[in-house]
Write a structure and sequence with these properties.
Elements lengths: L7 E5 L2 H11 L3 E6 L2 E6 L2 E7 L14 E4 L5 H10 L4 E3 L7 E5 L5 E5 L3 H10 L12
Parallel strand pairs: 1-4, 5-8
Antiparallel strand pairs: 2-3, 3-4, 6-7, 7-8
């Protein structure tokens, strides 16, 4: 049985550029580095950067993205930091909770989000998506 998300691995074109972004801008902790990769962490997250010569610095056309949690108090300063680092925004927020959608140096779609599943479900109960059904435990 699955017990949770183990880790995320992101293919990167330039390890040093991506390492600098995740360490200095997003403030992940660097755990280990090697010639073609790095392990970084946040509480509850293990992130692997892995050099892949096939990686293009272009975001995918779909909505697939990776969201990081941020507190409401820290959200404005994080957005300011991201804007100062001239990261590219890829979407405007259209849902409950403050969110900032941005690209990393390799075009991976990321999000900084205030809130959690419980707050999202509460908002959806007030204004459900078309066809939405809730599967509450008995």
């Amino acid at each position: 049985m699955l017990s949770g998300l183990n880790h995320l691995t992101l293919a990167v074109a330039d390890l040093q550029r991506s390492l600098t972004f995740y360490r200095d801008v997003l403030q992940l902790r660097v755990e280990a580095t090697w010639d073609s990769g790095a392990y970084l962490s946040l509480p509850g997250l293990w992130l692997c950067l892995s050099v892949d010569p096939q990686r293009k610095n272009e975001p995918g056309a779909d909505y697939t993205h990776y969201a990081f949690s941020v507190s409401a108090a820290d959200f404005p300063s994080l957005v300011e930091t991201l804007n100062s680092a001239q990261v590219r925004q890829w979407r405007d927020n259209r849902s409950e909770g403050a969110s900032f959608y941005f690209l990393d140096p390799d075009g991976h779609k990321l999000e900084a989000h205030v809130g959690d599943l419980a707050s999202r479900l509460a908002a959806c109960r007030q204004k459900p998506y078309p066809g939405m059904r809730f599967h509450d435990a008995p």
